[in-house]
């Protein structure tokens, strides 16, 4: 049976995040030929709305209010409840991002709905869509179906391929003035740390360093390799705890969960808590001088050697590609 599915698009610094397009692809599958309606919260998002149409949304609702320009849980919950009340969707798809992880349980509670979080793939099986999600820190996968009520899911970034862009697609992009009030928290200012510009959770390639890099300076060859590859730099908690880099780079059970196309682990032993955050990467390359290091058990390609020799060699090679 065809369904109407709502998708929340995410915008950061005026740019749509890729997960928005991936969520549309997931919504298309869930809708089974029905309608996919994308929602954007904030102001001045008309162009972003059109881009969502090009990536497969049938229609876009711009939930507009000055208080939605920056994310707040209260504000987004209020806005989305109004959109949901207007649209009465059968399904709802959000990214399993920091925003989605914060927002989805609250929305589910308000809607008295269930929620399947962190979906990595989905497939049609008869009447239902079967959702796959990792459990036990990625050591196993479970399959779930929703047989009744709202089909509410969050999808893990970088797992569900977006649809091909089609700039000839057209669809309605309509503003809805939502009522947002009594926010308990309001963002006054956003202070950013200097970054390489590549967002770790959406990066296609990640060069990650562990305690084996030995110092803050030890990250420099990794950054050089990342620059050549257009990659983001990540880290193990070992490296963060040793103060070689910022905790915002931490990947793992208590850090970010990433699924890039290519993950290059340099001087990382492969503790289970680190693997929880990266073992679903499509191709894993491990560089470690200990041939017994656990990281080699999940690696597609292993290089036993000193990272300070291997990484600059890789950088030189990739410069010539
Ligand atoms: P180490 O285990 O010390 O490994 C360093 C590696 O570098 C070794 O394998 C060594 O052979 C190699 N090496 C050294 N020098 C070189 C060289 N010159 N060239 C090549 N290789 C070299 N960890 C995370 O990463 N993320 C998490 O989210 C996380 N959450 C945790 C949550 C809990 C509750 C707990 C208890 C732990 C958590 N940890 C997490 C920590 C985790 O258990 C490990 O301690 C940590 O991942 C180890 O980091 P590491 O691999 O960089 O360091």
Give a brief description.
By secondary structure, the protein is α/β, with parallel strands linked by helices. Helices cover 27% and strands 26% of the residues. It has helices spanning 18-31, 46-54, 73-87, 98-111, 220-229, 237-241, 272-278, 307-319; strands at 4-8, 11-12, 15-16, 35-41, 59-64, 91-95, 116-119, 121-125, 128-135, 140-144, 151-155, 172-177, 205-209, 232-235, 262-266, 283-288, 301-304.
Characterize the structure shown.
The mean pLDDT is 95. Helix 2 links the parallel strand 4 and strand 5. Helices cover 27% and strands 26% of the residues. The strands form 4 sheets. Strands 7-11-6-1-4-5-12 form a 7-stranded parallel beta sheet, with helices on both faces. A 5-stranded parallel beta sheet has the order 14-13-15-16-17. A 3-stranded antiparallel beta sheet has the order 8-9-10, with helices on one face. Bound molecules: flavin-adenine dinucleotide. The site of flavin-adenine dinucleotide has 27 residues, from helix 6, helix 7, strand 16 and helix 8. InterPro entries: DHS-like_NAD/FAD-binding_dom (IPR029035), ETF_a/b_N (IPR014730), ETF_a/FixB (IPR001308), ETF_alpha_N (IPR033947), ETF_asu_C (IPR014731), ETF_asu_C_CS (IPR018206), Rossmann-like_a/b/a_fold (IPR014729).
* Uncertain residue ranges: none
Are any ligands bound, and if so which?
Answer: flavin-adenine dinucleotide
Question: Which percent range describes the beta-strand content?
Answer: 25-35%
- Helix-strand string: EEEHEHEHEHEEEEEEEHEHEHEEH
Strand element count: 17
């Amino acid at each position: 049976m065809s369904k109407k599915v709502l998708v929340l698009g995410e915008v950061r610094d005026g740019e749509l995040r890729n997960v928005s397009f991936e969520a549309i692809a997931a919504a298309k599958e869930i809708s089974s030929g029905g309608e996919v309606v994308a929602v954007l919260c904030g102001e001045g998002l008309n162009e972003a709305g059109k881009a969502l149409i090009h990536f497969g949304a049938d229609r876009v609702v711009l939930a507009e209010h000055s208080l939605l320009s920056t994310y707040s849980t209260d504000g987004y919950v209020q806005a989305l409840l109004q959109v949901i009340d207007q649209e009465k969707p059968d399904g709802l798809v959000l990214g399993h991002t920091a925003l989605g992880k914060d927002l989805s349980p609250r929305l589910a509670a308000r809607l008295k709905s269930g929620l399947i979080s962190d979906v990595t793939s989905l497939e049609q099986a008869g009447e239902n869509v079967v959702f796959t999600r990792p459990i036990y820190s990625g050591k196993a996968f479970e399959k779930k179906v929703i047989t009744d009520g709202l089909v509410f899911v969050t999808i893990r970034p970088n797992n569900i391929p977006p649809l091909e862009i089609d700039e000839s697609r057209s669809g309605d992009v309509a503003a809805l003035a939502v009522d947002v009030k009594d926010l308990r928290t309001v963002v006054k200012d956003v202070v950013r740390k200097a970054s390489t510009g590549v967002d770790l959770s959406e990066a296609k390639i990640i060069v990650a360093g562990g305690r084996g890099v030995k110092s803050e300076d030890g990250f420099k060859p990794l950054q050089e390799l990342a620059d050549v590859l257009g990659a983001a730099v990540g880290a193990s908690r070992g490296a963060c705890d040793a103060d070689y880099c910022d905790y915002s780079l931490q990947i793992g059970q208590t850090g970010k969960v990433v699924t890039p196309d290519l993950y290059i682990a340099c001087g990382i032993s492969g503790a289970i808590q680190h693997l929880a955050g990266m073992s679903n990467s499509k191709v894993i390359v491990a560089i470690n001088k200990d041939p017994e290091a656990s990281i080699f058990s999940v690696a597609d390609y292993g290089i036993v050697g000193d990272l300070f020799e291997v990484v600059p060699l890789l950088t030189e090679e990739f410069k010539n590609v």
